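Tip: read the tokens left to right.
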């Protein structure tokens, strides 16, 4: 959809606001034509001495009223218009946010966060200006142009008017050329602002790493370079916009010269009075505003088009995982993976290659294997963050895409490798999926996740703010808060993606024991590098290079000769060395 279609649709939907603004502008234009005529009328009356005191006061009262009306109408149209055009910004931001929250992992792999933030602010502002200022300046300028050219041709002399507007098409050609440059420069300026934003966002998110590695100077130098690039592009856009003004000046000077030349000839031949020529040149002066308005409108539209060119692909980007399912609830049942294959983008080898497995409800599956074996990928497919290239995943005999995404995600509690805490209290972070949970419920799950004592030691207990603007929790504490959050969600399937890696073995054992007690009916998948975490699982699967390499109970695998047995012996040896 082009920017013009977007704006036209918007104007149509908010036609009442735009129409009242336009009516107010017409009223202002009429009053502005009426006021000078009325003043002339009063002056003529005074000069001819035929305006008694009462009549004069009466006339002055009308003039004052008209002046006040112009003032209120001007305030009125701006309020009406900006309230409407501000809505397009709100609507676009809502659309962008909704789209971004539906997008899956592969979309974010190609997008830079800082640039997405720039789209939500800078670019949407530019579209908002095009839908607001540009529309009304365009309307006002055209209205003035029609009124003034009409008055010049009908009220003074059409031949003179025709000559005076001869340079206008030339100006239009010049404007078209300038507009192309404004468009290109604006696009570059918005893009570079996005890159600058991205650098700031990434540096602030990774500020500890930047400091720890002593990268401040390098990061600052990059910032200075990106900022210089952004300001150069912005300056270039403004320089091209500034080119409209001399074009207006040149056109006006040429039009005046033509009008005076032809006008003098007409006066010379007695076809025009000097008074008429004078009022004609005054009218000509009134054409400056429509000319400036044209330049202003074009530059706003070009900026808007450049911004829309960046926004539209993100708003229209196909969802990496569709949500066409209709089954609104997941009923308990076995989870089956049938010859599932998956490859990330252009990766040389698949991350999962013909994986088949079954998981009965209420059972625990241990998923282990060397790093990069595809364990997290398998969980992402269960969550439908990604879709398999081949094969099928079923839950209770229904293929996953047939569930609505809401149903599926409500049925799964997932603790990712990197637990993310929002800027809120610990209690709010735990109650993320169930904001209505009572304090007793929150404390119960915190106890199950063995984090209750840690929380009590925080300055304000469960009310301590954490996340970016609060107390920093240790990696192990963060993991346990995330486990408590998942337990509170009380979903039938719990996925723990190496979620105990930052806690010591004793705490791990405590949490696993609590999970066993609390998991009545709940299916659990535990991904872990530490095999002790899956020793009590009902079934253990070893993934290697995306394939199922071994599977069985812990006891059976330990008794074998494979990777699991070797890894188990190695980890046991290490644990006994650590204990010494
Ligand atoms: P770890 O134990 O280290 O967490 P894992 O077994 O969970 O590893 P995955 O994260 O599933 O392994 O990764 C499997 C393979 O897919 C690896 O080769 C990895 O490099 C690749 N991979 C993972 N995520 C992506 C991604 N977003 N884009 C491209 N390749 C990816």
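Filled-in amino acids:
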């Amino acid at each position: 959809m082009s920017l013009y279609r977007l704006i036209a649709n918007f104007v149509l939907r908010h036609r009442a606001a735009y129409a009242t603004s336009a009516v107010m502008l017409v009223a202002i234009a009429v009053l502005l034509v009426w006021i000078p005529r009325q003043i002339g009328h009063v002056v003529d009356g005074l000069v001819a001495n035929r305006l008694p005191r009462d009549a004069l006061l009466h006339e002055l009262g009308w003039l004052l009223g008209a002046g006040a009306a112009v003032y209120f109408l001007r305030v009125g149209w701006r309020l009406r218009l900006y309230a409407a055009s501000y809505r397009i910004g709100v609507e676009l931001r809502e659309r962008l946010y909704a789209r971004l929250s539906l997008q899956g992992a592969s979309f974010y792999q190609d997008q830079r966060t800082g640039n997405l933030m720039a789209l939500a602010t800078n670019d949407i502002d530019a579209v908002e200006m095009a839908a607001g200022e540009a529309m009304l300046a365009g309307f006002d300028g055209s209205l003035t142009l029609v009124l003034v050219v009409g008055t010049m041709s009908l009220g003074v002399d059409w031949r003179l008017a025709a000559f005076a507007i001869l340079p206008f098409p030339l100006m239009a050609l010049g404007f078209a050329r300038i507009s192309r440059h404004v468009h290109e420069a604006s696009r570059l300026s918005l893009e570079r602002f996005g890159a600058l934003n991205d650098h700031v966002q990434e540096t602030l998110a990774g500020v500890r790493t930047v400091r720890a590695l002593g990268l401040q100077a390098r990061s600052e130098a990059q910032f200075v370079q990106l900022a210089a690039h952004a300001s150069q592009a912005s300056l270039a856009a403004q320089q091209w916009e500034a080119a409209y003004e001399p074009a207006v000046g040149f056109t006006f000077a040429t039009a005046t010269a033509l009008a005076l030349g032809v006008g003098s000839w007409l006066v010379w031949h007695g076809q025009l009075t000097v008074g008429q020529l004078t009022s004609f040149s005054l009218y000509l002066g009134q054409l400056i505003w429509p000319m400036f308005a044209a330049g202003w409108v074009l530059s706003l539209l070009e900026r808007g088009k450049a911004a829309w060119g960046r926004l539209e692909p993100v708003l229209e980007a196909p969802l990496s995982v569709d949500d066409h399912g209709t089954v609104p609830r997941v009923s308990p049942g076995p989870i089956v993976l049938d010859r599932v294959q998956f490859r990330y983008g252009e990766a040389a080898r698949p991350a999962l290659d013909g994986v088949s497995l079954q998981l009965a409800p209420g059972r625990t599956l241990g998923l282990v294997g060397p790093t990069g074996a595809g364990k997290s990928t398998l969980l992402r497919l269960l969550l439908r963050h990604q879709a398999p290239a081949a094969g099928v995943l079923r839950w209770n005999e229904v293929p996953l895409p047939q569930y609505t995404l809401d149903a599926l995600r409500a049925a799964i509690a997932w603790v990712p490798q990197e637990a993310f805490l929002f800027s809120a209290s610990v209690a709010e972070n735990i109650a993320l999926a169930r904001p209505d949970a009572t304090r007793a419920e929150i404390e119960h799950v915190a106890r199950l996740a063995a984090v209750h004592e840690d929380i009590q030691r925080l300055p304000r207990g469960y009310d301590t703010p954490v996340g970016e603007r609060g107390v920093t929790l240790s990696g192990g504490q963060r993991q346990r808060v995330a486990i408590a959050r998942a337990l509170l969600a009380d979903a039938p399937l719990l996925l723990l993606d190496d979620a105990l890696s930052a806690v010591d073995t004793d705490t791990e054992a405590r949490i696993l024991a609590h999970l066993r007690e609390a998991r009545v009916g709940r299916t659990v998948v535990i991904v872990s590098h530490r095999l002790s975490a899956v020793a009590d699982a009902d079934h253990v699967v070893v993934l290697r290079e995306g394939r199922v390499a071994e599977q069985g109970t812990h006891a059976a695998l330990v008794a074998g000769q494979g990777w699991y047995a070797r890894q188990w012996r190695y980890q046991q040896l290490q644990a006994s060395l650590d204990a010494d």
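The two ends are 70 Å apart (CA to CA). The CA atoms of residues 21 and 81 lie 6 Å apart.
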